[in-house]
């Protein structure tokens, strides 16, 4: 479904700065030094390189240990990172996340929260919890990472992000990505989390999941949303409001091979094992501008057994809000100025 820009939805180019000032005090940023730019690229590349090289390292380490190749001593040394990773649980590490600020400069990252004061007060002072519905997924969510790194996101670093259970068990990968506070995306686990108050009872859900990953493109913007209604049902049963979030640039920083055996395995395991590339045709993310936009919370009633009509009603409200965010803010990101949103 192609959702074209309505006349009333987007801001005119001349109103660009006025719109930004309404929600966030944009300040003229000094030029980023070459050193900081390179540091930001290096830090971001750690995550993309880990996705590419961790799985083959794990396989070769197991092979070396089993066959004592080229020798028992050499195999043991080679497998030390694997052994340490197995013994170390995946755990959120906010202090490490806070040290990754050069990534913000590399991606020219900006953050807009439409109702920041109310949202912060509700979570931090009133103990209210939320489902943060995030789209698009992208290949690796660098925009989502930057939102946790940004000072405005510091107070939300304990909010769990739901991921495929496989990611929580793959050595190396679980430790590197785990610093962003990951949790199992199973329904039973999410219901357990949502019974807690405040940030500890909130969760980030990437609505489009792995299906949306393979829609990533620099030329067009596609969301996998029409058949994703489980998060609405979950929110209705728990009576938790939904905050729609749009991640501009998430689908452009990396490109992916969308067909073949690795892509098929990725879809089955709900985890990316396919080859992707960015800057210099390497697994280095491009330094495209990233913009994180959080809309106003959607009020969700508590319905123990929601009907399909209830689910469809609030799914449409969420979808309409996602479309509004896209067309309202796309002019803030040069690569998106002429893009149209497709929802499948």
Model description:
With about 350 residues, the protein is of the alpha/beta class. The protein contains 14 helices and twelve strands. It has a seven-stranded mixed β-sheet, with helices on both faces. A three-stranded mixed β-sheet has the order 1-12-7, with helices on one face. Strand 4, helix 9 (about 175) and strand 5 (about 180-185) form a beta-alpha-beta unit. Helix 2 (about 35-65) packs antiparallel against helix 3. Residues about 5-30 have low confidence and may be disordered.
In terms of DSSP E residues, the strand content is: 5-15%
Secondary-structure content class: alpha/beta
Q: Could you tell me the mean pLDDT?
A: 89
- Strand elements, count: 12
Q: Measured on Cα atoms, how large is the radius of gyration?
A: 20 Å
Shape: globular
Topology (SSEs and partners):
Blueprint: E1 2-3, H1 16-23, H2 34-67, H3 72-78, H4 80-87, H5 94-97, H6 102-106, E2 110-113, H7 116-125, E3 130-135, H8 142-149, E4 160-163, H9 173-177, E5 182-184, H10 187-193, E6 203-206, H11 209-213, E7 221-223, H12 230-238, E8 241-248, E9 255-256, H13 261-269, E10 276-277, E11 291-294, H14 308-329, E12 341-343
Parallel strand pairs: 2-11, 3-6, 3-8, 4-5, 4-6, 7-12
Antiparallel strand pairs: 1-12, 8-11, 9-10
Helix pairs in contact: 2-3
Summarize the structure.
The protein has helices at 16-23, 34-67, 72-78, 80-87, 94-97, 102-106, 116-125, 142-149, 173-177, 187-193, 209-213, 230-238, 261-269, 308-329, and strands at residues 2-3, 110-113, 130-135, 160-163, 182-184, 203-206, 221-223, 241-248, 255-256, 276-277, 291-294, 341-343.
């Amino acid at each position: 479904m192609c959702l074209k820009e309505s006349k009333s939805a987007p801001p005119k180019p001349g109103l660009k700065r006025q719109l930004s000032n309404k929600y966030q005090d944009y300040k003229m940023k000094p030029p980023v030094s070459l050193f900081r730019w390179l540091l930001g690229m290096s830090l971001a590349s750690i995550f993309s390189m880990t996705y590419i090289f961790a799985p083959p390292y794990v396989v070769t380490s197991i092979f070396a240990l089993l066959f004592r190749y080229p020798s028992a001593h050499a195999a043991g040394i080679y497998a030390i990172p694997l052994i340490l990773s197995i013994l170390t649980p995946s755990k959120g590490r906010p202090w490490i996340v806070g040290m990754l600020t050069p990534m913000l400069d590399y991606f020219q990252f900006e953050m807009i929260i439409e109702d920041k004061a109310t949202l912060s007060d509700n979570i931090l002072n009133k103990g209210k919890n939320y489902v943060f519905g995030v789209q698009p997924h992208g290949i690796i969510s660098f925009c989502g990472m930057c939102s946790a790194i940004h000072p405005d996101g510091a107070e939300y670093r304990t909010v769990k992000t739901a991921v495929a259970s496989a990611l929580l068990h793959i050595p190396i990968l679980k430790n590197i990505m785990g610093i962003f506070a990951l949790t199992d995306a199973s329904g039973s686990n999410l219901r357990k989390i949502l019974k807690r108050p405040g940030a500890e009872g909130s969760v980030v859900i990437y609505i489009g999941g792995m299906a949306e990953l393979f829609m990533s493109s620099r030329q067009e913007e596609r969301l996998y949303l029409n058949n994703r209604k489980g998060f609405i049902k979950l929110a209705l049963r728990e009576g938790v409001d939904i905050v729609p979030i749009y991640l501009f640039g998430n689908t452009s920083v990396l490109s992916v091979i969308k067909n073949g055996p690795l892509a098929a395995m990725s879809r089955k395991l709900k985890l990316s094992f396919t080859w992707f590339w960015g800057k210099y045709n390497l697994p280095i993310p491009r330094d495209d501008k990233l913009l994180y936009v959080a809309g106003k919370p959607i009020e969700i009633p508590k319905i123990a057994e929601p009907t399909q009509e209830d689910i469809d009603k609030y799914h449409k409200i969420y979808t309409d809000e996602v479309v509004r965010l896209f067309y309202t803010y796309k002019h803030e990101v040069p690569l998106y100025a002429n893009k149209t949103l497709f929802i499948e």
